[in-house]
Design brief:
about 0% strand, about 40 residues, mainly alpha
Length: about 40
Amino acid sequence: MNKLLIFKFIHISFTILETLRLSDWPFTGYVGKASRHRF
């Protein structure tokens, strides 16, 4: 696969995770914190 394409996909995924993390839902907030902690 193209490296740029992979990078774009990861960037979009992180953008979605960040959006979910900033939302008020406890579950998505937890997922966002966990993903941020992992990386």
